[in-house]
Each structure stands twice: as structure tokens, then as C-alpha cells.
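User: Sequence in, structure out. Go.
Assistant: Echoing your sequence, followed by the C-alpha cells.
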Amino acid sequence: MGDVQESREKVLEDLDNAKTGKFHFKTIFITGMGFFSDAYDLFVISAALPIIVSVFGLTGSHNIFGTTTVNLFGIGMSAVSVETGLIGSMALFGAFVGALVFGRIADKKGRRYIYGLEMSILVVFAIVSAFSVNVTMLIISRFILGIGIGGDYPISSTMMSEYANVKNRGKMVSSVFAMQGFGLLLGALIGVVSIFFLPTDIAWRFMLGFGAVPAASVIYLRRKMKESPRFALQTRGDSAEAAAAVASITGKNYGNAERSAADTKNMNGNPGRRLLRKYWVTILGTSLSWLLLDMAFYGTSINNGFVLQHIGYGTASTLHQTVFNLAVGNALIASLFEVPGYWIAVATIDRVGRKRLQWIGFTVMAVMYLILALKYTTLIHSILLFVAFYGIAFLFGNLGPNTTTFILPTELFPTRIRTTGHGIAASTGKLGAGIFTFLVPVLLVTVNVSGVLYILFGIAMAGSMVTIITIRETRGKSLEESSSLPEKGDRYSPVALNPRR
């Protein structure tokens, strides 16, 4: 047993200390292209939404509810605003389901078991949504598309984290997530090009359908990836499979490692529920911070067009010119603030630390939203100044909590419940994102932009407090160290993850 344990520890030690090389960069590309596709599909709707509302002729007398107002939570709301909110948020509600389902399957069956399926869902339903003949079909197809998006979160993040070395794990996992910035920017640029060159009825269909292209590019590569060595070793008990995966990175020969009787005994049973109960503070912290971040980030990003219209930017004499102006505004915000934020996180996360970046990001977001709310009547007369403060909130959101909420669950949960824990956190975030994205068009009508900004201030401040109270720092630690509970008696063995009695 001692020799087997030593051999298994050696495999993980070599993985943690491996030099950053070709394999890691390839894995960043394969996993990152998923987030490129996810972001494109989620955020391109921001450019497409004003066209969809016009093309389908959504009015007080023509909408899926057949009435001018809808009673929601005891409040009469504009039927058009509610329908618009549903179109914009439905992929996020799908992501809520996908993250939970795919996260649990990946802990039970393996990361590779369903890796690539989530991208197949994106390809099929990006195309289906582009050919929607009515709003109902669009809403349903966007929901199923969202299931694929949600499924990608726990699996891609975990695959990268479990293959990364300790020294640069933060850079590697945040690089995967930073691909979201390029997907977001491409969505804005495709919006500009589509509106400029195509008739409006074709433009929005091209925007949605194009999402199938980047997703399709990595399905084959994902199916060819080896199983995560940590899952193979710590959950499946297959030393040979783990050794082969690590050997492809280090080039070392680990001999004739096999699945031993001791391995099999250690892996018997299903401790998932017991472990989840022990990690309730981690679940609370990662889920709440992700919930609060996504409410602010997606609620504003997907509704950027409506926010810009409310402050007087982009409105022109024709629909075509208006949506073109709004698409340009989205592209500028993405390129000047959002994309740089992701890559500042990549450059700093292994030096500054996850927890510090997260609470700093939330705090600066809160300050920006408060300034915008307090000085709203003054700032709307200077659109550039308004966009500067608004953009800084995006910048710090991306270099802080938008990146760290993605990384921390891969480091704070042990291997046996890593994708389940990540899936719970991600799904909670996407639920908050869906609800707030749905509500923003309604809130813009009822409390105006300034009211929404005060709400965003409260959300960001709450995120900062949750981070300070519930999140542990993981910088510079192996996944086994970072996922060990600090309380006496709750620590887990670095290899087998059996509780120390």
C-alpha cells in the first residue's frame, strides 16, 4: 500500500511542478474556445434584441401574452418589456440547468465522459434559434442553447485546473475564462457588420447562427482529450490512466501502474452528499458571490443597448441606424473596458491572489455605480463621462469577480465534488443573471436608469462583503491543499481524499 501511495503522490507532484508547455497552451485553447462560444452566444443577443423586437412587431397589442400588461409579482408590467426580458434572459435560465446537470454527471462519470456534448448542443441550437419563425420558438431554442453553455462552465474550468501546474494555475484558468472577452467582442463586431451589410430580418438571424462556428471548431479536440488525471486517480482509482495523462505532459515513464485492489477499495462508496454538507460554507460563498456578480454583469451587458438608449446615445431617425449605433457602442465598451479587464486578471491573479482581486473588483464596481446613480442627471449630459464610469465598472468586474468566481470553485472543492460544487456556484450565478437580465428592461421603465444603478450599487457592496467573510485564498497551493477544510478533523488526505479519523 505504501508503494502504491508513493507512486500516486509522485504522479500528482510531477503534475503540479510540470513546466508550462505545449500541452498546457493546447488545453487553454480547447477549453477556452468553449468560453469564446459561450460569451458570443450570450452577449450577441444584446445587439440582436432591438432588431428582434422590431422585426416580430412586439407591441402592446401584439405579443405572446395577447395583452398590454402582465401581472408579475402583483405588479402590472408592460407585456412588451416582459417578453423582451424573456428573450434576453432565456439562455441564462438554460445555463442554470446545464451547469447543475453537467457538473454532477462529470463528478460521477468523468470529465471526458460528456466533454464535447455541450458544444454540440451549442452548434445545433445556435442554428435552430437563427431560423426561429416566432418568438416562442426563439425563446425555447435559446433556453436549450443555454443548457449547453451552462454545461461548459464546470467541465472546462475543472479540466484546465486539474491539468495545470501550481505556479501558473491562476493564469491558465483565467486565460480560459478570458476567451470570453474575445467572444463578447466578436459578438459586438458581428452585430456591427451584420447591421451594416444585411437587411434587418437577416442580420439578427446571422448574428445568432454564427455562434455555431466557434463551437463546432473544438468538438473533435475535446473528444480526443484524456481524462483528468486527478479524476482518474482520486475518484476512479485508476493509477495507469492518471500516469498516462501526466506522462503526456512531463514525458516521464511511470512504469506499469495499474488499478490496484487498494485503489478500488478507497474509491468505493459515494461520499458526494457527505462532502457537500461539509463544504456548505464554501458552497455558500462561491454561489452567493457568483450570484451577485452575474446579476450586475449580465443584467447590464445584455441590456447595454437599452441603457445606452436611455441616456440618449444611438437614437436615430431610422431603426437601422439606431441599432447600428448601439452595436458600435457595445463594441467600444467591450474593446476599451471588458476585454482588457480579463487580461489584467490573467497577468495579476497569481501575484495578487483570488480573494483580494474579487473584493477589490466588487468594491470599485460599487463605487462606480454609486457615482453614476448620485450624479445621473449631470452625467447624462456628458455621454462620454457616463460611459467612462460605466466602463470602469465593467473593467474591474472582469479583472475581479467575473474571473475569480469562475476560478475559485475549481480550487476550493475537492476532486470528488469539484464539478458538482462548481456547477452549483455557476448555476446560482446564471439564475441571478437570468432574473436580473429579465427584470432590467422592466426596471428601466419603472425606476429609470438611476434606480437600476442604485440597485447595482447594493449588489456590488453585498458581493464585497460575501467575499471577505466566506472566501479562502488559494494562491500558490496545490488543489489538494486549497480544497482542504481548515477546521480540525475536516482535512482530507492529499491523494485519496478519505477523511482523517
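User: And one key feature?
Assistant: The chain has 23 helices and two strands.
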